[in-house]
Fold this sequence. Notes:
alpha+beta, eight-stranded antiparallel β-sheet, five-stranded parallel β-sheet, 16 helices, about 35% helix, binds ligand MV4
Amino acid sequence: MFKKVLVANRGEIALRVIRACRELGIATVAVHSTADANALHVRFADEAVCIGPPPSKESYLNVPQLLSAAEITRADAIHPGYGFLSENAEFAEVCENCKIRFIGPRPEMLRLMGNKVRARAAAREAGMPLLPGSPGTVKDPREAEAFAKEIGFPVILKAAAGGGGKGMKIVREPGVLAQAFSTAQAEALASFNNGDLYIERYVEKPRHIEIQIVADEHGNIIHLNERECSVQRRHQKLIEEAPSPALTPELRQRMGEVSVAAMKKLRYNNVGTIEYLLDERGEFYFMEMNTRIQVEHPVTELVMGVDLVREQIRMAYGHPLRFKQEDVQIRGHAIECRVNAEDPVTFAPWPGKITGYSVPGGYGVRVDSAAYENYTVLPHYDSLLSKLIVHAEDRETAIRRMQRALSEYVVEGIRTNIPFHRAALAEESFQEGNYDTRFVERLLASETGSRRLKKAVEETP
Ligand code: MV4
């Protein structure tokens, strides 16, 4: 096994990786910015190296500093967590050139999935269903108009280098397509330094369903079923659950089988997630693939009984998968609420010092967090404070358990979105499992939703 892993991340995911390493008997190296000197990941690791000032560009994204830290401490692998350098093919390549194993897929795989046009073509060849759209990059507004005519309106323009919702433009009528093309191209160029666009039929009220893939270095590939991630605001997921209330056992099996067959064709390795849109007719379409461990991986861990980070590290070392598809099955239901340091009504980030802190616990409750009393939430990084995850025998019990856990959670000194979660879980559409990607928008616009949110804000100490 690896002797020492450097964790190129911070916050709860750095802790999550350090915990997995400790259980595997692997020594750990934390890296941190000057602002994170008192962070929990620094305290829980065996060693720590300061890699620069607070801005991510100069610390957690600083490749030379990270590699120096790995070399000085003689780490034999780097775990990138999520975000930061986790999907950066150049970083993965530099690691391998320095004889340090990158815990993730091969660099070519990161490169392939990082370009959404190439990923889409590869997905089609590998047999995954796609929405009607351009087979490659759309060069100019005239070509876009020709495709739109073929596909039919509404259509969506997406950036090849985008992903996670950045650089998308919905177009509902022919008259505004050329203008939308120019705007999307300019935005893509400014954000990603790549103005390439592609076009697809637009699905009005989709659900976001993603399939978890686990693939070893020997060609063994299985799926761990789906996560439902439709509760989002501005492409930031807020609540995830597994299994999805929208899937029948037949559809679940089909999505899993199509995904595994495609991953075998592409010779995918390590953990990954295939993101699908599910339309109102129950048809699913490949959107993109995430080549990293994801924030919401715990809901899969709880319902499938698999420690995903441990398996990820074992597979990166070269160990074969320890179970087959028929060995894993769904047990009960899990829900995750992302607790952010932000205003519960405006969603504006709310960094600051946590003056009082008490976490929920009890049967079926898991809290993945790097927060503690007197910890200061920094303005330099994302506002995820904690992931509150519950597991229960069925969905109704899981919702009740989450409501109970949310009511126990005390965070003083800063604002959090705990009141939002209380309002969301009280929604009839959520309780019925009858929601889509417009859920948050509808909650905030509705009389009952906004009243519940206001009440939850008042009732949250
Ligand atoms: C779409 C779509 C509708 N039709 N593509 C947003 C993130 C990116 N991964 C894909 N996204 C979408 N692509 C077509 N052809 C709607 C979205 C979308 C969305 C997807 C998943 C979860 C939340 C979303 C919120 C708005 C739009």
